[in-house]
Automatic annotation (TrEMBL):
<dbReference type="GO" id="GO:0009055">
    <property type="term" value="F:electron transfer activity"/>
</dbReference>
<dbReference type="GO" id="GO:0005886">
    <property type="term" value="C:plasma membrane"/>
</dbReference>
<keyword id="KW-0472">Membrane</keyword>
<feature type="domain" description="Phytocyanin">
    <location>
        <begin position="31"/>
        <end position="112"/>
    </location>
</feature>
<dbReference type="GO" id="GO:0098552">
    <property type="term" value="C:side of membrane"/>
</dbReference>
<keyword id="KW-0336">GPI-anchor</keyword>
<keyword id="KW-0812">Transmembrane</keyword>
<keyword id="KW-0449">Lipoprotein</keyword>
<dbReference type="GO" id="GO:0046872">
    <property type="term" value="F:metal ion binding"/>
</dbReference>
<keyword id="KW-1133">Transmembrane helix</keyword>
<dbReference type="InterPro" id="IPR008972">
    <property type="entry name" value="Cupredoxin"/>
</dbReference>
<keyword id="KW-0325">Glycoprotein</keyword>
<keyword id="KW-0479">Metal-binding</keyword>
<dbReference type="InterPro" id="IPR003245">
    <property type="entry name" value="Phytocyanin_dom"/>
</dbReference>
<keyword id="KW-0186">Copper</keyword>
<keyword id="KW-0732">Signal</keyword>
<feature type="transmembrane region" description="Helical">
    <location>
        <begin position="148"/>
        <end position="165"/>
    </location>
</feature>
Length: 166
């Protein structure tokens, strides 16, 4: 395989990673009581291919629910649920809004509910220029820096792979 071919293959393999972001739900507070997840979502751009990482203690769980159950804090019929773990990673797979709540009694009513609007994956050929509201400039910056970091990862990967192949 020529170096040029190898580089092209690597680039193709790396493209999906360029715009993928892992969001830690609630930032350092994690998935917990006392966090306003509506505020946390505000100003962030979520896309297909991104990942939500829930970090939580044993008193909490993560349930994926539909919108009516989200609205009513009804965790009795989740479409998916995760518990016991110290963290749960959920890949965002389709456009739309995903709804989450903590099924521990009282926790959803206390605010442990999360609605995430998911946009289509960014096209690598048409770089996205998200325009978050000015009040959430800091969130936007965090997201932007993570996207820039994944470019860095790709460069490192390509350099390493090149070294292995030659
Ligand atoms: C969370 O913040 C939003 C505004 O970002 C507000 O409308 C809502 O009432 C807050 N929720 C709680 C439980 O305080
Ligand atoms: Cu909880």
């Amino acid at each position: 395989m020529s170096t040029a071919t190898a580089a092209l293959l690597l680039l193709l393999a790396a493209v999906p990673a360029v715009f993928a972001v892992t969001f830690q739900v609630g930032d350092t507070a994690g998935w917990n009581n006392g966090v306003n997840y509506t505020t946390w979502v505000n100003g962030k751009i979520f896309r297909v291919g991104d990942t939500l990482e829930f970090k939580y203690g044993p008193s909490h769980s993560v349930s994926v629910v539909d919108k009516p159950d989200y609205d009513n804090c009804d965790g009795s019929r989740p479409t998916q649920s995760f518990s016991g773990g110290r963290e749960t990673k959920i890949r965002l797979r389709s456009v739309g809004t995903m709804h989450f709540l903590c099924p521990t009694p009282g926790h959803c009513l206390g605010g442990m509910k999360l609605a995430v609007p998911i946009l289509a994956a960014a096209s690598p050929m048409h770089s996205p220029s998200p325009s978050p509201s000015p009040g959430n400039a800091e969130n936007a910056r965090n997201t932007a820096s993570k996207r820039v970091m994944s470019y860095g990862n790709i460069v490192v990967t390509m350099v390493l792979m090149y070294g292995v192949m030659r």
